[in-house]
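Hey,
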Amino acid sequence: MTDPVERQRRAMAAFDALVDLDDDTRERRIREVCGDDADLLEEVRAMLAADAREGQPFRGDAAAWGQALHEPPASREGEPMPGRQLGAWRIVEAIGRGGMGTVYAVQRSDGAYAQRAALKLIRTAADSPAARERFLRERQLLAQLRHPNIATLLDGGFSDDGDPYFVMEYVDGAPIDQWCDTRTLGLRGRVQLFVQVLEAVGHAHRNLVIHRDLKPSNLLVDGEGRVKLLDFGIAKQLEGSEATATSDRALTFEYASPEQLHAAPITTATDIWQLGIVLHRLLSGSHPFGLARDTPLAKQLQLLEREPEPLTRAATQASVQQAALRGEADPSALAKSLRGGLAAIVETCLRRSPEARYASADALAADLQRWLEHRPVDAAQLGKGERVALWLRRNRLLAAAVGAVAIALIAGTSIALWQANEARSQARIAGQQRSEAQLQAKRARQAFVFLQDAMFGVAPQGQLDAQFSLNDLLARSRETLEQDPQFDPQARKAMQRTLANLYAIGQDWGTAETLYRQGLQDPAAPYDRDDATELAAQFGNYAQVLGVMGKPKEAIAAAQRATALRRQYLPDDVFEQAVSLRNLGDAYLGDGDHDHARRNYEQAIAAFKKVDITDQVQAIDALVASIGLARALNAQAQYAAALRTVDDATAFADRQGLAADWDGRAVLLSLKATAQKPLGDAAGALASFRQATDIAGRIYGVDNPALVNGHIGIGGALNDLGRPREALEAYARAERIIAGKAVQPGTEAKILAGQGMAWGKLGDAGKRADHYRRALATLDKADSAPLLELKRRIGAEAAAAPSR
């Protein structure tokens, strides 16, 4: 093989295919992968051997990489010990090791003056012609770079053994990420500090030097808040052209640009990519590709081929501690602060095409300065087609969700493509039939125009943002419906019902109830079985929302409407009849009629068992009946039976292949915890509640109202375990989530009562009494059986003697 670039690509591909195999399988496969190419075979074996060494030698270790690519063997000479003299400098101790050299703290010992410095000496383990050439190149580059944010070269020479060394200023500092976290530096402070990094990198670029290894450990910050750029060991100098080839592959994978990984020409854009990763980590607390120091090499290579996680999305997945280190209350607040300018800046740095990134470090610094001054940023603009393609590639799941919304908005109108096709195919009919066909075609066109307006209303100038929000689409859709007087009345109602479904999925119960009420008022009669199935499902969903909103009588009425529709239009459909029974069970449960609820659930489960479940949607329908039955059993204090029901439902979900992060699993775990707690297993209840909350948080986001009951459950379990201070933290989390939001009746009362119990355990009788009083006050107007039962229970707790 004569082309080194192609050879390296083949070697990397072969390594990736073999690295995770066991020894026997790998030995069989390696010859299949490498064929008769002896050089490739030897190279891949060397890479596999290097990867097997302890400590991941490929991560920034130029020597190990060079050995894998057949550099000459290393010298066996011992490394210097403290006390050794090199020129005017006496070695004190080793303070670091890089790919080529060991760095020592040294003291000037020639009597001229006292000075502490850092001396870098080529490591004997890395001593080869190529390594020595890189070392000398680094020394020469430092000699020509004079900048307050770049470690200054002080001296250089050769040891008595002929080993090259150089001496640079000693930087008593910490990596930039650690420095920021230690001082809980806010976003503005982090950006201002990062601008110093850009000044150093910009100076290097103006001197035609590309660093190629920008990472926090090479960006130290001293006690005065001054950044120092270090380690030009793998830097490259541009010589009369914009790009340089990459014959050596020394790099740090965590920060490697696509062109470094694929042996493409290197430009200053490589440093921009690495700066983007550093900035992403400083702002969000996470690596844009999900890499960590202990990520295996093969996994690193796989992750680096994906698209980077957008900045604000990464922030929503941060921990509360990470948000606090950046001066934000929680991940949601952090994401909000990063939205807009900062997100656009980081996104521009991390574009795969070097030409699409910032043209220079100075341009990046200028945009960050605009953000600091609250001015619009000039993040490099893409064409409309490029932007849409990039958005779709980076947001596969979100794009699929938007597609699902689009389909729902069209299909939910009950007038979609089928009716438009019908209108065209029946164009020959006359009179009233022709008018009806034309009306259906008009409705279909309205649906498409409606969707188009909603989509582009939240995407100015048709430019889809990486943080495109489904809530924005829903809000725009609702606004369009309310403001367009020309919309066909039945099409409007169908759209309102569909939007209500989507708002209910997002836990916005108040808006969902309003839209259902509008959309289900005198709906058009179903025109076929499918339309009847859809309308019945919407009445069933409406019943669910009414139950959540504490309106059980209305919920029962809506469930009965759904049942009547199915009996009239779908009398022979066992599955749909089972769904009706489940709807009624939910409605009766909300009214506190546990006996009726249990009977309906049991009948529904028996009916579902008669059906051949063919897909996961049907499986979820069946599982919801089991969830309802477990709720009813818990309400009747039949906890052991509730646990058996949860276990059976979980096993069924596993057999049906439902995802580990299906939201129903969170509900099942919460029901399990609810049964475990009164059975005396408070530790088990705590574990179940935490697991349920973790699943829900990954699905809905950590600040979604869907997580409130989980945090309340965690607080209750912690109270039972005698850990009241931790319980107060859990209840405080629940309080923050519901602040300013419409929630289920009784939620605030549960939080206050739990806090009252915790204060009682801490011996504060005054706070205990106050919290119980406030909890009961929220239930003064309780009129449903569940709320009255909650009021009775809280009253009994309040009357009980407080205990520590």
